[in-house]
Amino acid sequence: MIASSLARQLRDAGLEWHPAPGDFFRIEGPEFASDETFTVSDMTVEPHEFDTGTILGFNGTTEWALDSVALEQALWLPREDQLRERLGASFRSLTTLPDGGWRVTTRGDDDTGEAVFDAAAAETAYALALLALIDVAALR
What does the pLDDT look like over 94-112, one tens digit per residue? Predict the structure, then answer.
């Protein structure tokens, strides 16, 4: 799972989240434990769409006395597969490094400008690559 700080950078760079079953998230705010991770599930946490925005409804949870939380209070922690999918055609490869880490290689839209992103965990390497891709797209 990527670090909250990296997930926050992705969100702040413009990565949008449309909650779906299996998605991981944390609730932002001083009243919540920063390491508590939730999973969107049809059984316990469901996204509900309203004219005013999306809320995450907590259905019958015993460990939390929450009815719902606004999507803006939730921090999405994208999975490895979700990050790879968002890289789209720019993704070239994922390889292991001699030290046990991971390298994601991407290429620009014009098929030039190969870039590499190394991290201890594959999902972190994917997230760094996606963050760079979002930053480049914002400059256009």
Answer: 999 999 999 999 997 665 6
Sheet (strand 102-106) strand order = 91-96, 102-106, 115-119
| Rounded alpha-carbon distances, angstroms, from residue 66 to 62, 92, 104 | 9, 42, 39
Counting beta carbons within 10 angstroms of the beta carbon of residue 129, is it exposed (0 to 12), middle (13 to 18) or buried (19 or more)?
buried
Cβ-contact 19, 27 below 8 angstroms: no
Total residues belonging to the chain: 140
Residue 118 structure tokens: 């190394």
Q: Which residues contact 74 (CB under 8 A, 6 or more apart)?
A: 17, 19, 25, 26, 27, 28, 56
pLDDT digits (tens, 9 = 90+) for 3-60: 999 999 999 999 999 999 899 999 887 776 667 888 887 666 778 888 888 888 776 6
Q: What is the DSSP string of 19-65?
A: --TT-EEEE-STTS-TT--EE-BTTTEEEEEETTEEEEEE-S-SS--
